[in-house]
Every structure is written in C-alpha cells, then in structure tokens.
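Re: 4'-deoxy-4'-aminopyridoxal-5'-phosphate structure - here you go.
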Amino acid sequence: MPLPASWGLEKTLAEIADAGQFRQLRLLEGGQGARVTIDGRTLLNFSSNDYLGLAAHPAVGKALKTAVDIYGVGSGASHLVCGHTSAHAALEDALARLTGRSRVLLYSTGYMANLGVASALLSRQDVLLQDKLNHASLLDAAAISGAKLVRYRHADMQHLEERLAALAPSEQRVLVSSDSVFSMDGDVPDLNALASCTAQAGAALQLDDAHGLGVLGEQGGGACEAYGLDEAAVPVLMGTFGKALGTAGAFVAGSEQLIETLIQKSRTFMYTTAMPPALAAATSQSIELLQSEGWRRPHLQQLIAGFRKKVSALGLDLMPSDTAIQPLLVGEASAAVNLSKSLLDKGFLVVAIRPPTVPAGQSRLRITLSAAHDENDVDQLVQALAELVGR
Ligand code: PMP
C-alpha cells in the first residue's frame, strides 16, 4: 500500500525537482581512494572526506578483520547494557591521549554526538549560540535540546560578542557551538578569539572538529592541538571518524564530569547500539597511523598549496581556505551541477553542493584533496578546470 495521496509526497518531490534541488545517489562499485569506479568508469575522486587516504588503508582493514575474529561483528547492545568492549575502551583512551583531554565517550555517529551533547547539557531556559554556517547536526541539536537558538554571522567574533552581551542575566547555561573547519567552506574561524570571548562571557565552548581531527596539528590532534586550545578553553570537543580517520563513528572529549553527565543523560548514547568493536579497533589503528605515517599531513598540505597556486594562476577564485576542503564558488545551482557533470564527462568526481546545504546563490563545487592524491592527480584536475572555466 502506498502512502495516502493526501500526504502529498508526489507534490513535494515535484517541488524539490522544480527548485533544482533533487538529489540522486551515486553507486560506487568499489572502495574509496584517489580513484573510484562508477558505472564501470574509473574517476579521479575529489569529493571524499578521506583526507588522509586511510579509508582503504591495508593496516586499517587488517585491524578490522583481526578484531572480528576476537569480538565478532555486532556489538549486540548499547554501551550501557553489554555492548562496551575492551576495543571501545582502548579507542577512548587513545583519543584522550591524542586530544589531550581527561576522558572520551564514543558515539555511533557525529550526528548523534552533537544531538547528545546539547540534549544532555541544555534545556528550555538555556541558550545555544551558533555560527550561521554550522553543520546541520549542530543546528538540529538546538531543536532537540529545547534551548533557545541564537545565531551569529559566520566566523564574526564581534557579532558573537554582541550576541553574548545581549543575553538576559537569567539565562542559565550558555553554550557556544562552532565547526572548527567549516564543512562546506573549508575555512577556520579565529578559534583563539572564539575561545576567549566565550570564556569572558562566562559561556562554554563546544567545537565540532569533524574536519580538523587527524589533519590539523603536528600530531594530527586536530584544531585544538593546532591552536593550543586545552580542555579549559574548549570544554566540549567533538570529533568524527568518518573523515580523516577513514572509518565511521564519533566521540566527545572533555572532563570526567562532562563524560559522566553524557553517560547518564545523553539519549543518543544511551539508546543506541554501540558501534561494532572491530570498527573501534580499526579506528585505533588509524590513530596509530597518524604517527607512523606522519608524512600524510605535510603531503596533503603541499597538495593544497600547489592546487591553490595553480588554480589562481588560471584566474579562478577558490574560496579562502587552507584546509583540504577547497570550494570553487559557482553561484546558481544549475550552473554548479552542469560544471560537475562536465567534470564527470572528463573523468572527475567533483560533487556540486546546492541549497539547502549552502545558501541560495552560493552553490559550489566542493573540491576535496587527500593524501591519497599525488601531484599529477591534482594537475589533471587543474587542467580540466582550465578547459572548462579558465579565464
Ligand atoms: N559535524 C560536521 C562538521 C560534519 O561535517 C559531519 C559529517 N558530514 C558531522 C558532524 C556528522 O558526522 P557523522 O558523519 O559521523 O554523522
């Protein structure tokens, strides 16, 4: 039985299509890497968040397989019932060392981690201050927590200060949440200013380091390592495993009390199945690779610098970003989609990002670089961009 016509799904879908926002899944016929296969064609991949090229790393795969022999596949239950294994605990310890935090708690996804933080810490009388371009999961976290959501202009610390100053004294808890590296823009706000003006106002800071962990910092400890932000400056640190670490899942790091509170009160931790232990073991292996294959970070940085230089020599403006996310602003959604299609024809996977993910008129190609690429891969993309849009 289809859903009743009165639900209007046909009309909704038509409206999405009319707005040029219809999305389609693409089917990959193999694994992640600098090259992927779609419809039997090998494409150079500039769309993945696998920034360090660990998603298909043999050592990570081996750690996963070895752990399956020990732990089996499924965790069988939530962490608090009987799903928490020594593999999960070892990963939490490794993350605490990597981030320099007192304690870490695993979540099955970053989306759930962000929902879990806000819903455990905040309620209706509290305030959540957020950057306008924060990831959807942070914005959704505000809704689920019931806290009052106040947004400040993207990366605008003066506006944040004004917002903080304007809060009523009765508002009990104030949490400022921000992406460290913005997922669709690749830029990093002035994190030291963010931390200091949050602290001065007596508020607490949550950073979502999904795109910084593994990539930023000498040791790959993320944005907090890179900018010297300790647990006092960023009491709530969130990171994910599905990007630079090449696996899946997420964590929150902070004080003993924060983690205990999340264990007691965070519904997206309490009422969901623990991630498979083998995935935790694979992620621990990725963390080891951050040190043992430390060349991946400088190699990626070199590719980023070379790419920006070559693209600007074409007279094209990449958005301001020093990270692996190098968006090329196009404007209209249809133009971005057409450019993405032309690149596909030439053998490149570069996905167009449109509203509602980005504001109207700011559709873009979200080009991502990876340590899995070599200079020749990047040169091929630059050449293709020169042919399609070079001035
Ligand atoms: N935060 C940011 C900034 C992200 O980019 C993402 C993933 N796109 C998430 C959170 C969600 O993480 P996950 O994919 O693990 O749910």
